[in-house]
Specification:
Blueprint (H helix, E strand, L loop, with lengths): L4 H8 L14 E7 L6 E8 L5 E9 L2 H14 L4 H4 L4 H8 L6 H32 L1
Antiparallel strand pairs: 1-2, 2-3
Helix pairs in contact: 1-2, 2-5, 4-5
């Protein structure tokens, strides 16, 4: 099976590997697993006060396509608003990396991970706002 150059590049030189402090209120963490194969992906975003994603990191326990998908997503989301980032589709990832059909679920994992990270950030922000209201 021939893998695309872009896929191999992200697999061999993954961008933004690592993790950020989980508890911080400006960090959103998404941790998801792929039912199809048991692989796990953790994706984190750091969001500025005006809702721009300043940084993103990932750790993926999984196949090369999952690593490449998460690497690509961390690159894509930087500089985007959380609402823009939420519109990333697994089909965009699969197309960019030219994933073969059996590897499509790996890109689904990356879409799920970024959505989960955004959700986590939003729920933290909502709690923080409530705290502020209560203090006023
Ligand atoms: Fe899990 Fe791809 S099947 S590594
Ligand atoms: Fe399961 Fe890639 S995430 S094979």
């Amino acid at each position: 099976m021939a893998y695309s150059k872009e896929l191999i590049d992200h697999y061999e030189n993954p961008r933004n590997v690592g993790s950020m402090e989980d508890g911080a209120s400006d960090i959103g963490t998404g941790l998801v697993g792929a039912p199809a194969c048991g692989d796990v992906m953790k994706l984190q975003i750091k969001v500025s006060a005006d809702g721009i994603i300043e940084d993103a990191k990932f750790k993926t326990f999984g196949c090369g396509s999952a690593i490449a998908s998460s690497s690509l997503v961390t690159e894509w989301v930087k500089g985007k608003t959380i609402d823009e980032a939420a519109t990333i589709k697994n089909t965009d990832i699969a197309e960019e990396l030219a994933l073969p059909p059996v590897k499509i679920h790996c890109s689904v994992l990356a879409e799920d991970a970024i959505k989960a990270a955004i959700q986590d950030y939003k729920s933290k922000a909502a709690t923080a706002n409530k705290g502020q209201d209560a203090a006023e």
